[in-house]
Amino acid sequence: QVQLVESGGGLVQAGGSLRLSCAASGWMFSRYTMGWFRQAPGKEREFVAGISWSFSETRYVDSTKGRFTISRDNAKNTVYLQMNSLKPEDTAVYYCAAVFSKPVQLTPRLYDYWGQGTQVTVSS
Predict the structure, then answer these.
(1) Half-sphere CA count of 58, side-chain side, radius 13 A
(2) Which of 17, 49, 56, 75 has its CB 3.0 to 4.6 Å from that of 70, i.e. a possible disulfide?
(3) C-alpha distances out from residue 74 to 33, 35, 54, 89, Å
(4) Which of 58, 56, 40, 53 is closest to 95 using CA atoms?
């Protein structure tokens, strides 16, 4: 069973940066594809970025391309989301998620394990 804990959220000015971390339980972490999702008030949870277990692909939502970077460190059982040039529209609760041995999935229903979320607020 995989357990995920996000950290690194907070309040930041527009144009600033944050680095989110998601610490995972170590058992077979390297075989799990990882994704970041976000959910703003009154909106559906949406895909932000994902990285496959094999490192063969990364995917991003169009609105974050060129600003966000997903990475993972299997030795530390951790996935990261580097967020640069933040905009007020990025304000949301950010969640990491895991699914075993699959290509990057774009819909929340296809992920099996979720963290508790970390809030990101970008002020204008």
Answers:
(1) 17
(2) 49
(3) 11, 15, 11, 31
(4) 40
Cα–Cα–Cα angle for 24, 26, 32, rounded to 5 degrees: 70
pLDDT digits 0-9 by tens, 19-58: 999 999 866 888 999 999 999 999 999 999 999 988 779 9
* Pair of tokens at residue 16: 């600033």
Are 92 and 63 contacting, i.e. CB atoms less than 8 angstroms apart? Answer: no
Q: Which amino acid is at 81?
A: L
What are the b/e assignments for 75-105, b being 16+ CB within 10 Å? eebbbbbebeebeeebbbbbbbbbbeebebb
Alpha helix locations (H) across the chain? none
Alpha carbon distance 60, 42 (integer Å): 22
Strand partners, 70: 81
Q: What is the CA radius of gyration of the chain?
A: 13
